[in-house]
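In this section we walk through a basic example: taking a raw amino acid sequence and producing a predicted 3D structure, encoded as discrete structure tokens. The instruction is simple. Fold the sequence below.
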Amino acid sequence: MIELEHVVKNFRLNKNDSAIHAVNDVSLKIDDGEIFGIIGFSGAGKSTLVRCINLLERPDSGSVKIDGVEMTELKPRELYKARTKIGMIFQQFNLMPSRTVFQNVAYPLKGMTKDEIKKKVRELLALVEIGDKENAYPSELSGGQKQRVAIARALANDPTILLCDEATSALDPQTTGSILQLLKDLNKKLGLTMVVITHEMEVVKNICRKAAVMDAGKIIESGDVFTIFSDPKHPVTRNFVRTTSNLSKIEILIKDNSPMVKLKPGELMARLVYIHADVSEPLISYASREFDIEINIILADVEIVAGAMVGGTVVIFNGPRERINKAIEYYQSKDIRVEVIQDAGA
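The resulting token sequence is shown next.
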């Protein structure tokens, strides 16, 4: 288990400058075998936080415990040994360009015979599905292949924790998907605890079960990923969620005065947001029949997050106002959040 308690890390550009609170009183618990996401916009402090876990950045105050061991109290030799069990991968791969794939992966291996190193490296390259590239140089590889090499190198000392700092930010969407799938497979095969640092909500949706959202050095929201996406509490989190949803396009249609969103007298436009894991019921068609109103779907966005469906629709209600109100009450009883966007009046 990774336990952070009241971690603080400040920076000063110059001695006389005021402190920049990169990490400001952060407390987190990450269970063994978990894939935990830490998300935030640039400058939120997430990369500094993850570097505090392996003490590449030493906190100014607070506690960092791994499996009950206080990392900040370890002597240099003890800390070096502890770090061998914490692998780390980066956005820019950090491969040595003058060394082959084999040599890059073999670099962390110390105190082993040549035959043992050869066996270990080839096992790792096979694990990340890039065994045929052992004699290639980084310049000959695609971005996804470079990241696979970086992952193999991070696994060389059989770590129990893997820190991923913006590991997919330099990759195209298709390659990102393959790397995320690889990380999920490694989590299952090796039982690795993974901490995923990212500014991309898509990454958190695809790989994490739990996550924390950072802003200005603080954790502003945390919990299971489904709840964060389906019912975000903090404005920054809501902003993140909106950037990944087609439902946010309704504001663009309204601003452009699109014919799609022009309301007739008595109509009401609303965003229906599912905040429950079960959205398998035919909610739109049922309400339309039950309350004898028209419900026109303008936009819809439903996807799988953490193994459950989450999303919503933008609809226009047309009919007597008392029936529209009853339909809205019905949706609310089904744990659907109803946000009125425009109302053409009764």
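Looking at the output, two observations stand out. The longest helix spans residues 173-190. The two ends are 57 Å apart (CA to CA). In the next section we compare this with other chains.
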